[in-house]
């Protein structure tokens, strides 16, 4: 007789095989030039662009971190991710993404660093953007591996250890990225996005039925967690919600795997349709994910150390095979983020660091091999770091979001203000990063009743203040300095027109 463990691992394994088959098909159709490997030849249509962005962004942070947060502190986080960031990022998709698409189409850019380095005539700025992006990408890749390890622990009730789940997804994503390129990643993301949406809504219906229906779940929540039924009854203040929504949305716009998707659309119309539909998809995934975490709190689910609430809840209220199917959907979310992150990270490394500083005359074939070696090394290092569990999924993800957010306003200023100078860009990017890193790594300092150095200032999160500082420095220093002769002050406007 087939054991429960065999069913669980068989379902997850079968899904991985299907995803790998899609990647192999894409490999056969992908040419070996860099633009096709990294950007799928700038030929992506509306459905694929929408779902590859959706599946790439909505990762372990969503599938496991979200329900865990709702389970511990209430469902209001849905206001941050499901509503506010759905709308805010859609706006940024137009403000940053459309402009970037026009510039990239006109000049053939592949990375954000390439675009900024050319605009300001600076290899050092190009390297700074790439280096910071890889630095903040590290914890977010690690988050996916942590999520995989915790998912397998929860699904198998600890029979399969944390390290095995993390190692499994690490090996898979290395193999997948090495062979697939963006075309394979985008195709698989579309499959994974549809799969994620389907299984999470099925999970809501199944748990609701098994637990006695919506009224029984509401009564259980009113008995065990009555504060979760009132807005503001959890642990969130308006300042926390707004600060989190802003830093996450702006951080997402600078994520390498998201930012690079601003270059890949087949046309401007594709880009516009995609960001218009974005808020709908976000709500469709976040609402059921947070509902499940909130219901678990009301039902009194006991979550083992090192596990996530979602697989534990499903093991309790749904059949073994279905719980495994939903975890496979969560693994899909993690893989669709990890493969895109590793692919984009490799392009940042090879095009913005390796080519300009190490081997400017490298052939495309050599660049491709360097990229693949970089993928394997980067994923291995993040796996080792994930074994130390430096925080919860939400804490690790939030730290990465804030780091990327510090680059957003200088980039937006550069895209829209022709008088932005190289000195202003260095001041804005470095100033915001130094301020933010100091708050990440240095404990809060209190002097009497006053916070001199802490997590908030005037009740607003330090990440938001770092963003304000980056914008002020970019504009202020640019206003006080003169562009160098090699800076292309009109690079973003010459020859560009609305599509």
UniProtKB/TrEMBL annotation:
One of its GO terms (cellular component) is plasma membrane. It is found in: Cell membrane. This is Sodium/pantothenate symporter. PANTHER family: SODIUM/PROLINE SYMPORTER-RELATED, SODIUM_PROLINE SYMPORTER. PROSITE patterns: NA_SOLUT_SYMP_3. The gene is panF. Keywords: Cell membrane, Ion transport, Membrane, Sodium, Sodium transport, Symport, Transmembrane, Transmembrane helix, Transport. One of its GO terms (biological process) is sodium ion transport. It is a multi-pass membrane protein. The chain crosses the membrane at residues 6-27, 39-65, 77-96, 125-142, 162-182, 194-216, 236-255, 276-301, 321-349, 369-388, 400-418, 425-442, 462-484. The lineage of its organism: Archaea, Methanobacteriati, Methanobacteriota, Stenosarchaea group, Halobacteria. InterPro entries: Na/Glc_symporter_sf, Na/solute_symporter, Sodium:Solute_Symporter. It comes from the Archaea. It holds the Pfam family SSF. One of its GO terms (molecular function) is symporter activity. Belongs to the sodium:solute symporter (SSF) (TC 2.A.21) family.
